[in-house]
Specification:
There is one protein chain. The protein has a domain of 277 residues: pyruvate-formate lyase- activating enzyme. The protein is built from 19 helices and 18 strands. Helix 4 packs parallel to helix 6 and helix 13 runs antiparallel to helix 15. The two termini are 26 Å apart. The C terminus is likely disordered. Bound molecules: iron/sulfur cluster.
């Protein structure tokens, strides 16, 4: 067991240069750019601002949000409600179906072809098999799905075991879901209980077994940076995940944000309960080394797949291709016709809006200039790769023409590899993916070459 940990320590000392720690620091827990621009500087808007009568056929990604779970994890920062009554869930599903109908009435949407769909949350598999079926029938009837669609549903282990769990899995399969993403998070029972998951490691393994009987393309999520997680526990998580032989394993960094108040308060009060920056980096190095030696692909940065066949296509569409996305349901964000726009955040507003036959869009921002669209592509796409020819076709200039200074700095720090054809993260860049990504933000301090502040949790 120690061999991998020792190797990671050596790599950290020899390959991850100290100068990187001086100039660019991993803000391990605090900053994660989910999308760009972030939800500020937006203004109210209506659907007429976004859509126009285009007859162009475009590829679109679909996201549906199911904001219900059977409890609340301590680190949860999503818009989700625990243990809601059947009536409330039914009302939401009816509203979501109505939103789908309204969207389908938009002439432009009729020309869109959905190439990837994702039902996330919350816990979509919290829905009863009957509600899942209702929703899936509606989605398949109304929306224009490509024959070769990647159709993912997120699941929590306890919801896909036992008799009802099996019914859910059968329902998903029956309506064309072909990728399952299971939120395992860790195989350590003490941590699972502490972060208030509603399953233990045995149930997680059982759920993977059951899922494998019905699905070929399965992803499991693990979290790096959980409270009380040690290098030994992380190694156990990696090895147990690998033993399940699923084709895709994601290793997300824990996000500590005020939106997740329980873990946020714990971190403020008791930071020593969380892996410090050095441990965090060692965990990443351990993942990269272990997956690498087993021939897994690392693409995008936190996803490890047995082969490119299992790469998570919706993420590539959104990040690498700067592709269009429509998110339906409470609190989702969409990107269409250069508009980044958001749905309302509360259930009350969501239901009211749909009762009045209005799309529940609250606010947004248009990236009118090619430079801003290109910046979005770099912020998100650098975690995959940036194809320079495609970049020039999309925005009319090469990345170096407008972002040359930032690229040179990142290259000089060995964080990116900038070749003739593409730009991608290097070995060290994978460890600092968020910082690399944030370097392209308009007002990021590193653009002025100032160091990020060291917190008392840092690695010196
Ligand atoms: S399962 Fe996911 S969405 Fe639900 S409470 Fe936990 S972290 Fe939040």
């Amino acid at each position: 067991m120690l061999e991998l940990i020792e190797r990671a320590k050596e790599i950290l000392e020899t390959r991850v240069k100290r100068k990187i720690h001086r100039e660019i620091r991993s803000k391990a827990y605090s900053h994660h750019t989910v999308t760009y621009p972030e939800r500020n500087n937006t203004s109210p808007l209506k659907q007429e601002d976004i859509f126009y009568k285009s007859s162009e056929t475009k590829d679109l990604a679909l996201y549906l949000h199911i904001p219900f779970c059977n409890g609340k994890c301590t680190y949860c920062q999503y818009v989700t409600f625990a243990n809601q009554s059947d009536e409330r869930v039914n009302t939401y599903i009816s509203a979501l179906k109505k939103e789908i109908n309204l969207v389908c009435e938009i002439p432009e949407i009729k020309n869109f072809r959905i190439t990837t769909a994702y039902i996330g949350g919350g816990t979509p598999t919290y829905l009863s098999p009957a509600n899942l079926e209702k929703l899936l029938i509606h989605v398949r009837e109304k929306l224009n799905f490509h024959n070769n669609i990647e159709f993912t549903v997120e699941a929590s282990p306890e919801t896909i075991i036992g008799e009802t769990g099996e019914k859910r899995l059968d329902t998903l399969r029956k309506y064309g879901v072909n990728r399952l993403s299971i939120g395992v998070q860790t195989f350590d029972d003490k941590i699972l209980s502490f972060i208030r998951r509603r399953h233990d490691s045995k149930q997680a393994i059982e759920s993977i077994k059951r899922a494998k009987e019905k699905f070929n393309n399965i992803n499991i999520d693990l979290i790096v940076g959980l409270p009380d997680q040690t290098l030994e526990i992380w190694q156990f998580d990696l090895d147990t995940a690998l033993k399940t032989k699923v084709p895709s394993i994601t290793t997300y960094p824990l996000k500590i944000k005020s939106e997740a108040p329980v873990v946020y308060k714990l971190f403020k009060k008791n930071p020593q309960r969380f892996p410090d920056e050095k441990t965090f980096l060692l965990m990443y190095i351990m993942s990269m080394e272990r997956f690498n030696e087993l021939g897994y692909e690392q693409y995008p940065v936190w996803w490890f797949t047995k082969s490119l066949e299992y790469v998570y296509k919706q993420q590539i569409h959104k990040w690498e291709n700067n592709g269009e996305l429509i998110a339906l349901g409470i609190a989702g964000y969409s990107y269409i016709n250069k508009w980044q726009y958001y749905n309302v955040k509360t259930l009350k507003e969501y239901l009211e809006s749909l009762n009045q036959n209005r799309l529940p869009i609250s606010e947004g921002v248009k990236l009118s200039k090619p430079e801003e669209q290109a910046r979005r592509n770099l912020v998100l796409g650098i975690r995959c790769k940036i194809d320079k020819n495609k970049f020039k076709e999309r925005y009319g200039f090469k990345p170096e023409e407008k972002f040359g200074k930032i690229l040179s700095r990142l290259e000089s720090l060995d964080l990116i590899i900038n070749s003739e054809k593409e730009i991608k993260l290097g070995y060290t860049g994978n460890l600092f993916a968020e910082e690399v990504s944030r370097s392209f933000l308009l007002k990021h301090p590193s653009n002025k070459n100032t160091n990020l502040k060291k917190n008392n949790h840092g690695y010196a």
